[in-house]
Design brief:
With 400 residues, the chain is α/β, with parallel strands linked by helices. Helix content is 42%, strand content 15%. Strands 2-9-8-7-6-3-4-5 form an 8-stranded mixed β-sheet, with helices on both faces. Strands 10-11-14-13 form a 4-stranded antiparallel β-sheet. A two-stranded parallel sheet has the order 1-12. The structure holds glutamine. Glutamine (GLN) binds next to α2.
Length: 400
């Protein structure tokens, strides 16, 4: 993207806003539309949302739930979140003092950080990472400290993590299941992190938006269920991925009453609140029967299978995801200058949009042999992508 710079006696754009670029993930969706490419970049389903949610949203509008909800969330929705959280994570949450409803997980992370992190504080982020966390930290005036997740299994080095903690560390972000690698953090890993957080008095900000999308028997362990992390964890989630409604922008934060008090103030002045009728529909989502989640897992298991078959057929090496709906791939063998050149060719000439790996790394060079596909798509979409990607393969054979 080009930004137009005019010369003023002093810069009109703030230092903070100058420190990060626009989201590459969101940009890829615009490029996909421009080039009529199949969009396997930004993570959103191309299939229908559950009928009970759509009915509940329409009903809420007809019932005139059309004015502001309570700023920190409609009571009906907060009660439903508490009940669902008890069922799935086994956590006791007081909807009156421990839940804040937000405009998606994106606002949730921003509000939670602004409510807890001071300028100059350090925030630990595992890398590769979902691209929002860097700008979130900058907007708080905080300094992100990156700790590597190491291929092929995306484990972290305990010594490296230990060395990242210091007196300035205020928080650590844990995204599990992880975007873009599909890593699911184990109880042992979280317990290790918990000991460090306890020792250094550090908060945990989670992003658990893929908590129900798991493969091969992997189990979601919520950091808030780890003994040392119970009180110091700010749990972030949203309707977007579990209920296939990414455009609704409804998320929520669970934290102890003290932290929730601060988060609610920030949230109120940022957005006042999330869409009231969609919060009502959110309550319907939280009351879906257990088998909804079993079906969701099966659905995604099939989609992962289809995606991996596409990659096998085309010959793109990948890291098999344990959770979430992305697959991180190694493009080394294709011999392009970098991930940007490769993704540009894919979207412009082959007709498939993906996310360049560098957008998940602080130092672009570290991500330049990776790309990310998302596979929350209809079978025919993945099939069409395969047909286009096969052209890529014949190009490479020709080039040899
Ligand atoms: N999490 C999604 C992704 O990584 C995007 C979410 C968003 O764009 N807000 O593609």
């Amino acid at each position: 993207m080009t930004t137009h710079q005019h010369s003023h006696p002093r810069p009109w754009v703030s230092n903070k806003a100058s420190q990060f670029t626009e989201s590459v993930i969101r940009e890829m969706s615009r490029l996909a539309a421009k080039h009529q490419a199949i969009n396997l970049a930004q993570g959103f389903p191309d299939f229908e949302a559950p009928q009970p949610l759509k009915d509940a949203a329409c009903q809420a509008i007809q019932d005139d739930i059309n004015q502001y909800a309570i700023t920190w969330g409609d009571k009906v929705f907060r009660d439903a979140i508490a009940a669902k959280t008890k069922w799935y994570l086994g956590l006791d949450v007081d909807p009156e003092t421990q839940i804040t409803v937000t405009c998606g997980a994106t606002e949730a992370m921003m509000s939670a950080m602004l409510a807890t992190v001071n300028p100059g504080d350090e925030v630990i982020v595992f890398e590769p990472h979902y691209e929002n966390y860097g700008p979130d930290a900058i907007l708080c005036g905080a300094v992100p400290r990156y700790v590597h997740l190491r291929a092929p299994d995306w484990h972290f080095d305990e010594k490296e993590l230990e060395a990242a903690f210091n007196k300035k560390t205020k928080a650590i972000i844990i995204n599990t299941p992880h975007n873009p690698t599909g890593k699911v953090f184990t109880e042992a890993e979280l317990t290790f992190i918990g000991k460090l957080c306890e020792y250094w008095d550090v908060l945990v900000l989670t992003d658990e938006i893929y908590e129900h999308i798991l493969y091969d028997g992997h189990r979601h362990v919520a950091p808030a269920t780890i003994e040392d992390l119970k009180d110091r964890t700010i749990t972030i989630n949203a309707l977007s991925k579990t209920y296939s409604v990414t455009g609704w922008r409804v998320g929520y934060i669970i934290a102890n009453a003290e932290l929730t008090g601060a988060i609610r103030k920030v949230h109120d002045f940022l957005t006042v609140g999330a869409a009231a009728p969609l919060q009502r529909a959110g309550a319907a989502a939280m009351h879906l029967p257990e088998n909804y989640y079993t079906h969701l897992q099966q659905l995604y298991d099939n989609k992962r299978q289809a995606m991996l078959e596409v990659l096998d057929t085309v010959g793109i090496p990948y890291f098999k995801p344990q959770g979430a709906y992305y697959v991180f791939c190694d493009i080394d063998r294709f011999g392009y200058a970098d991930d940007i050149a490769f993704t540009r060719h894919l979207v412009q000439d082959i007709g498939v949009a993906v996310v360049p790996g560098s957008s998940f790394f602080e130092d672009p060079v570290q991500g330049n042999r990776f790309i990310r596909f998302c596979f929350c798509k209809k079978p025919e979409t993945l099939q069409a992508a395969q047909e286009r990607l096969l052209t890529l393969n014949s190009e490479i054979k020709l080039a040899r």
